[in-house]
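ok trying this again, last paste got cut off
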Amino acid sequence: MGRAYEVRKASIQKTGAAKAKLYSMYAREIYDAAKKGGTDPISNASLKHLMEKAKKEQVPGDIIKRAIDKVNSGVDENYDHARYEMFGPAGSTLIVDCLTDNVNRTISSIRAALNKCKSKMGVNGSVSFNYDNCAVIGFKALTEEETIDALIEGGVDVEDIEMNDDMVIIYGNPSDFNAIHEAISTKLPSVSFDVDEISAWLPKEKVTLTGEDLELFERLTNMLDEIEDVQNVFHNVA
């Protein structure tokens, strides 16, 4: 299948993780977005996006509300966004995005997982140069031509557009994420975004693993999924 499938696959690497982690992850992200950009989703596009995404993943409304109420009540929590690049078995690579209130705890947990899976940490840039960083937005009900017209009318340039069955997939610069949303929503007010990634890392080339290498890789991704601070895991394994 096309790149769109790989993006969706990457965005749900937490498959099998407890709902508690999913809820905690969104609570942190929503709190962080509200603290930095304000608690009104109308004027805070990042917060609006997170709230919509959380609802799609069936995060209870009271968890969303509590995260925003914490900001309104003056609760002061500090979270750092951290990205780690890794070398897995047999030429596999990973990019892991985290949101943490304790970087030392996070890196310690990640290193423990790497050590148990014959993998190692890379320096910044050692892996990401083999990936494209894109905003990826997928939806149905418009043709490719209609999508191009909508983007032109909205004054938005994108990197690529492709069809995946009946879904239109747009690849753009992460900084244009909101502009792409607005252009498509103006053309199709009832649109539902099936793929909705502000910053996805897409491998330029993929590798296929078998046997023990595949087992180690799957063990590594499962262990990373279990770390509470891990938000997303992107990799180059087909």
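PB: full thing came through this time. The first strand starts at residue 80 and ends at 87.
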